[in-house]
Recover the amino acids of this structure.
């Protein structure tokens, strides 16, 4: 179990909320580099092989697409060359690259979020506000992997009995598998609804089997998060992070305190998880 999963859900959610929001709104090159590197390193720390595959098959295509598309629709700045008569400017190209890196970092933060923040944590946070929404979210998180597994099993069964062939096209294979899977999936959903009704869902105030408590590590983690985030917010409001791509590049401001605060916030889960891994390794070595 990774370190962040031992923390209170409020602690983890608060950190991810600040980090993702800052990653979206701060397009300063220094902040982009910090956010993207830390996001990727933490994803690799959690899921080594899956994180690399996610980068190759999904992350990089998104970043490259953003880099290519922006110059085709925005022509402000110094013209570098023409593509079918369309001017491609340096500023538009670099802004597209910045947007792509921003999307890449946000994707990896969400990649890590779904690993260290399971559906029951979302249910725990939402149950006091809206139990119905909490239940819906938890059911969706449970429903999607079950549907994927059912589709895979159906496809394997069809291959085994010869209804479909490995050489069949994607559309033909998918149509047969989905058409055969729709009815069982609907029946399963109806059975779940009937089961919940029999269990008395909605008849009285809902209770929870989840019991989380704040520990010293939570207060330390939240404290560092709030101090770093407050410094970053002040830097945003006071213009310390300001950087413009249009109509020309502005100079990156020399404000090390604010960049260090952003780095501390971004690398905080890596430091915490690393500490937990070192502690666990030392404990195992004493056995």
């Amino acid at each position: 179990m990774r370190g962040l999963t031992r923390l209170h859900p409020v602690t983890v959610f608060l950190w991810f909320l600040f980090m993702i929001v800052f990653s979206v709104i701060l397009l300063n090159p220094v902040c982009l580099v910090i956010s993207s590197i830390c996001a990727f390193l933490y994803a690799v720390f959690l899921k080594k092989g899956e994180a690399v595959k996610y980068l190759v098959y999904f992350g990089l295509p998104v970043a490259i697409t953003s880099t290519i598309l922006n110059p085709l629709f925005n022509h402000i700045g110094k013209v570098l060359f023409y593509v079918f008569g369309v001017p491609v400017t340096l500023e538009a190209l670099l802004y597209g690259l910045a947007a792509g890196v921003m999307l890449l970092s946000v994707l990896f933060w969400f990649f890590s979020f779904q690993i260290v923040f399971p559906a029951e944590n979302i249910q725990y946070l939402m149950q006091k506000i809206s139990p119905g929404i909490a239940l819906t979210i938890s059911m969706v998180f449970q429903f999607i992997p079950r549907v994927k597994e059912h589709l895979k099993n159906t496809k394997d069964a069809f291959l085994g009995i010869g209804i479909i062939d490995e050489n069949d096209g994607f559309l033909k294979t998918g149509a047969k598998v989905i058409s055969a899977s729709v009815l069982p999936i609907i029946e399963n959903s109806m059975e779940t609804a009937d089961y919940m009704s029999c269990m008395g869902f909605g008849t009285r105030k809902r209770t929870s089997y989840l019991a989380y408590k704040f520990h010293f590590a939570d207060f330390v983690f939240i404290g560092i998060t709030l101090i770093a985030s407050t410094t970053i917010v002040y830097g945003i409001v006071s213009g310390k992070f300001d950087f413009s791509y249009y109509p020309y590049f502005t100079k990156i401001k020399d404000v090390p305190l604010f960049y260090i605060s952003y780095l501390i916030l971004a690398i905080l889960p890596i430091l915490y998880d690393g500490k937990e891994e070192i502690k666990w390794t030392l404990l195992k070595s004493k056995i």
